[in-house]
Specification:
The complex is a heterodimer of chains A (about 130) and B (about 350). With about 130 residues, chain A is α+β, with helices and mostly antiparallel strands. Chain A has helices at about 30-35, 85, 90-95, 120-129; strands at about 10, 15-20, 25-30, 40-45, 50, 55-65, 65-70, 75-80, 105. Helix content of chain A is about 20%, strand content about 35%. In chain A, strand 6 and strand 7 (about 65-70) form a beta hairpin. Chain B has three domains: about 5-50 and about 140-225, 2-Layer Sandwich (Gyrase A, domain 2); about 50-135 and about 240-270, 2-Layer Sandwich (Alpha-Beta Plaits), CATH 3.30.70.1400; about 270-350, Elongation Factor Tu (Ef-tu), domain 3 (Beta Barrel), CATH 2.40.30.110. Chain B has eight helices and 21 strands. In chain B, a hairpin with an 8-residue loop joins strand 11 (about 175-180) and strand 12. Chain B starts with 6 loop residues before the first helix and ends with a strand. Classes of the chains: A alpha+beta (about 130), B alpha+beta (about 350). The interface of A and B includes residues 39 and 60 of A.
């Protein structure tokens, strides 16, 4: 059974978002996603300072099994990336919601948050998978 | 979907199950990388009961297999095993397999699960010209126990002495068959056992500290060992000469199926070869990525992935014969530099990649 913390927001493509400050979100992939991928061996991080539209491919997580794109969940500018994933990509397996965070984004003023799911809705969506 | 006798044992051990050629098989039991390291440094085991075991018996069993297989089975001693390709008339690879010679009139063959139907059909078609019969061992369970400590941990559980069983030889009694073969690049054995005894042996191996390993680790282990995967590194559309399997073709004899086509190809000139690739920087090499060199020679990665034993991205690729270093691989929108290396990447736990 995958762990889905109550205090986060989620996307259908298995990213999580944590609101750190007003308009500032930390983003990673969910416990369900890391479990599906298996041992993660390489992460291509988004560009710091890069602007991304909603659903842009902004990075890649590669496991022993497959390569999986990271989609930017909301329009905005990347203000930080988790450099420690370059040497220790397995942090995403070991700690998907803490040490395995991937990047932080400052969202645009007109960013649309309506498509983001609550923990309860995300739990339901992965049970259907 | 087909299930092996050990299916329930896999689920109990926490395996993630996947569909593999119509079989419900474990891909891993948690961490594929830990399973990989267990085989390289200690002992791991794989349920490979999905593979197909066929016995060939009769006064012309040797002649049949000499015609069917490209390698020279007449060189085999009693109980010795050999890797061979089996070709069609065009020289394309129908399958790769292991053949054990049990006597002059009795052989055992192990072929891939995904090619079972066409292999059996091909055997049936070709065997009619010979005084020999084939019997598929449909209920045999096969467990591959692999790693430097594999035999030491397995031996106390068997009533069969393996101390004189050399690499690529088999030993057996009336209820167990053990071949000192494998698909990992480590020492170890493949055990064939009756289904009613398989669950107990599997559990005893766990108790002896042998780690259950899934198909994921099996793939990274065989890739590091430079071993081919049928359907990926070769198939019916390529000859052994073009994909690094020329060593499975016997010399100075044209009596096997496909020999004529190979001779024609040699006359015309072989323009493809198999190479090992190592990615210089960060990233992962994958099946189907394209390779090129500065002179414009091209190729394609047939098997690629992360190598847990070396920490690098490695691949096998079929490329133009004149390809030479430096080469690069297209990964998504980037072109990343690689270098060409000899296979295997890893042998007996040690990286052979030169810096």
């Amino acid at each position: 059974m995958s762990y889905v913390p109550d205090n986060l927001l989620y996307t259908a493509s298995h990213e999580w978002l944590e609101e750190l400050d007003k308009g500032i979100y930390r983003i990673g992939i969910t416990d369900f996603a890391q479990d599906q991928l298996g041992d993660i061996v390489f992460v291509e991080l988004p560009k710091e300072g890069g602007s991304y539209a909603q659903e842009d491919e902004c990075g890649v997580v590669e496991s022993v099994k497959t390569a999986s794109d990271i989609y930017c969940p909301i329009v905005g500018t990347v203000i930080a990336v988790n450099d420690s994933l370059e040497d220790s990509p397995e942090l995403i397996n070991d700690s998907p919601y803490d040490d395995g965070w991937i990047f932080e984004i400052e969202i645009d003023e007109d960013a649309d948050l309506d498509h983001l799911m609550s923990a309860e809705d995300y739990r339901e969506s992965i049970e259907e998978d | 979907m087909k299930k092996t006798v050990l299916n329930e044992a896999h689920r109990k051990a926490g395996a993630k199950m996947v569909n593999f050629n119509g079989w419900n098989m474990p891909i891993n039991y948690g961490s594929q990388i830990e399973e990989h390291h267990a085989v390289r440094t200690d002992a791991g085991m794989f349920d490979v009961s999905h593979m197909t075991v066929v016995d060939i018996e009769g006064s012309e069993a040797t002649n049949f297999l000499y015609r069917l297989l490209a390698n020279d089975i007449k060189k085999l001693n009693t109980n010795q095993a050999m890797y061979s390709t089996m070709l069609n008339e065009q020289g394309g690879v129908i399958d790769d397999l292991i053949v054990y010679k049990l006597s002059d009139t009795n052989y055992r063959i192990v072929v891939n699960a995904g090619t079972r139907d066409k292999d059996i059909a091909w055997f049936e078609k070709q065997i009619t010209a010979f005084d020999a019969i084939m019997t598929e061992q449909t209920d045999t369970v096969m467990i591959a126990v692999q790693g430097p400590n594999a035999i030491k941990k397995l031996q106390p559980l068997l009533d069969l002495d393996l101390s004189d069983t050399k690499r690529f030889y088999a030993n057996y009694n009336d209820h167990i068959f053990v071949g000192r073969t494998g698909y990992t690049g480590e020492d170890g054995v493949e055990v064939m056992i009756a289904p009613e005894a398989a669950g107990a042996l599997w559990q005893q191996l766990i108790d002896a500290g042998v780690k259950p390993c899934g198909l994921g680790a099996r793939d990274t282990l065989r890739l590091e060992a430079g071993m081919h995967l049928y359907g990926q590194d070769m198939d019916e559309n390529i000859t052994p000469l073009e994909c690094g399997l020329g060593w499975t073709i016997r010399k100075n004899d044209d009596s096997f199926i496909g020999a004529q086509a190979l001779n024609n190809l040699k006359t015309k000139g072989v323009d493809k070869k198999l190479v090992g690739l190592v990615l210089n920087g960060r990233g992962i090499l994958r099946h189907d990525q394209t390779v090129s060199d500065e002179a414009g020679s091209q190729g394609i990665i047939t098997s690629g992935g992360f190598s847990p034993s070396t920490g690098k991205a490695i691949a096998m690729a079929v490329v133009d014969t004149n390809m030479s270093d430096p080469v690069s691989v297209a990964i998504r929108e980037k072109t990343l530099p690689c270098h060409v290396v000899n296979l295997p990447f890893v042998r007996n736990g040690k990286s052979l990649i030169e810096e």
